[in-house]
Amino acid sequence: MADTGRIVTVGGMIGTGFDLLQRQAAWFGALALVGLALRLLQLFERTAVIGGSIGSGLMSIVVAVASFIASLLITREIMAREGLMAAGTPLRIGTYLGVTIVFGLAIGLGFLLLIVPGFLVLLRWFLAPYFVLARGTGFKQSLAASSDATKGHRGTIFGLFVVLGVAYFVIFGGVAVATGGFQAFTDPSAGFPIVVLVVQAALSAVVGAQMLGIFATLADRANVYGDVFG
User: Fold this and answer.
1) Distance between CA atoms of 132 and 204, rounded to whole angstroms?
2) Which residues contact 104 (CB under 8 A, 6 or more apart)?
3) CB 136 within 8 A of CB 90
């Protein structure tokens, strides 16, 4: 699957991501609104604790779960509209959550032990949640599909991550400094100004489009439809 039959470049994947963002602007806007709502609720929770620590904890859980499900459903809708998901593909929330958690833990452990293993896990498995959504595959199959799709292209993907990371830092950091929100980096209780939260949510949606762009570039679409039309 990794051999797409064409040259895969950083610029090409960025272009695919922005094309996808343009075509599905309304849905990525909804994704940004979900992210903004989560950040605003977190800000509200810090400034007006309701029900003491227990109430605050419950609110955090409810907000996190609602945001997770909303983001998952919106991403799935975008994939369906882009032809990246076969009709009738089952929604496997448990598998998606499990893959996401294990992937996050593996990256965290990799960076804790040494930065290189963390990057290797990231470049190898980061498409696994998208394969769960696109194909309804199980845990091991999704990780294997991600590893196969990224094989031979991980250096290019790393370059894309560097470009996205620098752009994110420059834009988000610049807005934070310009609006007086830089203090929140050293004092989390200070919180970011609303405009910074809006920019952060918008940038997260753009990054989401770029991740789907990578999936669209590397995933073998024939395999997505194979089980349905084969």
Assistant:
1) 21
2) none
3) yes
